[in-house]
Design brief:
The chain is of the alpha/beta class. About 20% of the residues lie in helices and about 35% in strands. The chain has a single domain (about 1-120), classed as 4-Layer Sandwich (Nitrilase/N-carbamoyl-D-aminoacid amidohydrolase). The strands form 2 sheets. A 4-stranded mixed β-sheet has the order 4-5-6-7, with helices on one face.
Length: about 130
């Protein structure tokens, strides 16, 4: 679940994993775009560590949107023991965006060997 998260007077663009009604893991987005329609640095502090959680013996890591575009976030997740990278996304559409996403995901898989599950929002922009 994506949400803003405040810790020690700092705001993060975050995602949390819930199990049985409890938060079991929270990730703070690392890469904060600041161009075109994006103005995240104005509101959020970048995160700096991977978020690993285990479900049914499989270790998962989270990324949010622009994190997948930079190889170091997937690499850090891999080095922390992740087997699967879950990517939450809500970036706006533009021509050829889907093929660009596919290329970036293939690159991260090739670099780390991680399986990737990528979820974008639905609707006109998804």
């Amino acid at each position: 679940m994506g949400h803003p998260h405040e810790v020690d007077d700092k705001r993060y663009n975050a995602a949390s994993v819930l199990r049985d009604g409890k938060i079991i893991a929270t990730y703070h987005k690392h890469e904060l775009p600041n161009y075109s329609v994006f103005d995240e640095r104005r509101y959020f502090t970048p995160g700096n560590s991977p978020c690993i959680f285990e479900m049914q013996g499989v270790k998962f890591a989270l990324n949010i949107c622009a994190d997948i575009w930079e190889e170091h976030t997937a690499q850090r997740a891999y080095e922390a023991g992740a087997q699967v990278l879950l990517v939450l996304n809500a970036s706006p559409y533009h021509i050829d965006k889907q093929s660009l996403r596919h290329k970036i995901i293939r690159d991260r898989i090739g670099e780390t060997g991680l399986a990737v599950i990528y979820a974008n929002m639905v609707g006109g922009q998804g």
